[in-house]
Amino acid sequence: MVSKPPSSTLERQARRFLETHRGRRSIRAAPPAGRAAERILKPLARRFGVGVERLVEHWPEIVGARLAEWCMPEAIQNAAGNRVLVIRARGPAAAVLQAESRRILERVRLFAGERSPTRLRVLQGATRAPLPDTSKMTKPPSASQVSEGVEQSLETRLLSALDRFGHSVKSRNATDL
């Protein structure tokens, strides 16, 4: 029979074993994904130029608010060595955009740099609807506005009109403060 060493000896041996045979080092944290993507995308952006998503994002700043209401960039195509910006315009606005094409291309060139489109193609059709501007959202109608038109007698219509006038004056005074 094999005799067991005393517990203090076992503890010493275990401690020595653990000191010499520790587990693997902890795994290093993954680098930030943004930094890795930036290393890949920056050279591609320099080589191929600005994408249509970036043009869509800044379109009102590039062409102005009036033209941005009528059209939206759809694609950038390479045709026979020329980069062509394809714009979808609402109905008869295509003629106006065709007339303004030189100015539009100049502004896109200022925004996009040397790899910008050199030609413009305007397609007629419905543009993608922009996201609604939440800052200009209106309040739901008040009870007096809902009851407007429901009144039957002359007296109730007069009271309703006076009530609306009072609310209007109060709202003007609140905005002037």
UniProtKB/TrEMBL annotation:
It comes from the Bacteria. Residues 126-150 are annotated as: Disordered. Residues 135-147 have a biased composition (Polar residues). This is DUF721 domain-containing protein. It comes from Maricaulis salignorans.
